[in-house]
Amino acid sequence: MSMVRLVNVTKRFGKITALKQINLSIEDGEYVCVLGPTGAGKTTLLRIIAGLLEPDEGEVYIEGKKVNGVPPEKRNAAYMFQNFALFPHMNVWQNVSFGPVIKEWDPEKIENVTSEILEMVRLGDRRDAYPHELSGGMQQRVALARGIAAGARILLLDEPFGALDARLRVNLRTQLRSLVKDQGLTAIHVTHDQEEALMVADRIIILREGRIEQIGSPQEIY
């Protein structure tokens, strides 16, 4: 089943057409990278899937359901910003459990789910730490854990390693792909880094000037 499907999606900002007639289908459990230069429309595409922007034309489907007009919190997708967007006044535990708390889950379930996910991302011993006390790599894992804890099946990753140094980026690429695959999640990962896309993607979408130029496996494209 297609986890995400876009049909003839177009988005304009004034006289600029950021996305032009995008047709795209992403399968359940796929790790897809959207690759392209600055201004290609990558982040606009991600924000439309997330519900942070609405298309001017076309339809967006998640898990087979049309979601045009559906707010972000009801799309079963977690948007991970480049700066991780953690709550600075909350510790690791509070950041990760934020979604379940807002959704008023049973306290015991919140405890169990949050503990399990923190162990999964190897941050169980940092549950009381605040974001400013964590390395960039740890903050990235907290942001990922928060998305998973909220029950999201789709991770929308906007240049997730852009703020990190080169050595850490290489390590986290492998860790992130492993976590996504182990949890059976679907990931859509925006990057301008060709090497990064080749390392993590099942399929690569090359976007240029708002149009899909090519789609294929890393082997097919390179």
Tell me about this structure.
The chain is an alpha/beta fold and 222 residues long. It has a single domain, classed as P-loop containing nucleotide triphosphate hydrolases (Rossmann fold, 3-Layer(aba) Sandwich). The protein is built from 8 helices and 10 strands. The protein has helices at 42-50, 92-96, 98-102, 107-120, 136-149, 166-182, 194-200, 218-221, and strands at residues 2-13, 16-27, 31-35, 57-62, 65-66, 77-80, 154-158, 186-191, 203-208, 211-216. A 6-stranded mixed β-sheet has the order 6-7-8-3-9-10, with helices on both faces. Helix 4 (107-120) runs antiparallel to helix 5. The longest helix has 17 residues, at 166-182. It is globular.
Looking at this protein, list some descriptive labels.
222 residues, alpha/beta, Rossmann fold, six-stranded mixed sheet, four-stranded antiparallel sheet, globular
List the helices and strands and how they pair.
Layout: E1 2-13, E2 16-27, E3 31-35, H1 42-50, E4 57-62, E5 65-66, E6 77-80, H2 92-96, H3 98-102, H4 107-120, H5 136-149, E7 154-158, H6 166-182, E8 186-191, H7 194-200, E9 203-208, E10 211-216, H8 218-221
Helix pairs in contact: 4-5
H-E string? EEEHEEEHHHHEHEHEEH
Please count the helical segments.
8
Describe the largest sheet.
Answer: 6 strands, mixed
CATH superfamily: P-loop containing nucleotide triphosphate hydrolases
- Shape summary: globular
The residue fraction in helices comes out at 25-40%
- CATH architectural label: 3-Layer(aba) Sandwich
Q: Find the CATH topology.
A: Rossmann fold
**Termini gap:** 27 Å
Count of discrete structural domains: 1
How much beta, percentage-wise? Answer: 25-35%
Number of strands: 10
Mean of residue pLDDT values: 90
Gyration radius over CA:
17 Å
- By CATH reckoning, the class would read Alpha Beta
